[in-house]
Amino acid sequence: VFQEFYLVDSLTLKENILLPLYISNKPYREIESLILENAKRFEIEKILDKYPTEVSGGEKQRTAICRAIINEPKIILADEPTGNLDSINSEIVIKYFERLNLEENRTILMVTHDPTIASYSKKVLLMKDGAIVKQIEKENGEDKKNFIQRIVEIMDYWWYCMLWYNIVVTSWPNKLKYLEGKEVVTMSEYFEPEFKKKIVRLH
Fold first, then answer.
1. Contact between 124 and 117 (Cβ < 8 Å)
2. Contact 160, 199 (CB under 8 A)
3. Which of 89, 119, 167, 190 has the highest Cβ tally under 10 A?
């Protein structure tokens, strides 16, 4: 599932959803049943005969998700699936993903910059320049509000760590020096949570 939807404008929504099934060798009646079943799930059954240019961004993304799951994959890859949507449609889309995970045991691997969207997941991996710098897991019974707060705090912490390193530190490849004192620590020590208070806010 992509941020830009990637629907074929010359095909109807139904035909777009149908594309992955062309090579499945399934009977047409079964294909028709699958399309209608999934379209109802994503509340687009009444607009299946419309073209992508005739529907909203939220409806396009729901069509794209419907196309992605029509062959019942166990893993769904989503690249910024809410990036082009407003807050209302973003919530609709992410709740569909949540339902697919909870009710159908589908694994969702999603990329996002939005901590609210990330809070719907069970595990969050923070990345910097292609490397994982932190992993956060939702605790049993933890509500979304608290999980969002934890995500935001850690994102904020790492963003300032990297900002400090990129802007201030140019002469110490293996060590960092604090502005407020003469203390020098190693990179691994600097990035430990107890050193969060040492970060100089550069905004």
1. no
2. yes
3. 119
Q: What is the dihedral of CA 86, 88, 92, 97, to 10 degrees?
A: 50
Spatial distance between the Cα atoms of 176 and 169, rounded to a whole number of angstroms: 7
How far is it, in rounded angstroms, from Cα 154 to Cα 39?
38
Following CA atoms 20, 26, 30, 32 in sequence, which dihedral angle do they give, to the nearest 10 degrees? Answer: 40
Tokens of 127: 């990345």
What's the average pLDDT block by block, 10 residues per block, for the chain (203 residues)? Answer: 86 90 77 87 91 92 88 87 81 85 88 85 83 84 84 70 46 42 46 46 36
**Do 190 and 169 touch, CB atoms closer than 8 A?**
no
SS3 112: coil
- What pLDDT is attached to residue 186? 46
Residue 123 carries which DSSP code? E
Query: Which is nearest to 63 in space by CA: 82, 88, 38, 86?
Result: 38
CB 38, CB 17: distance < 8 Å: yes
Structure tokens at 133: 């710098």
Q: Do the Cβ atoms of 164 and 199 come closer than 8 Å?
A: yes
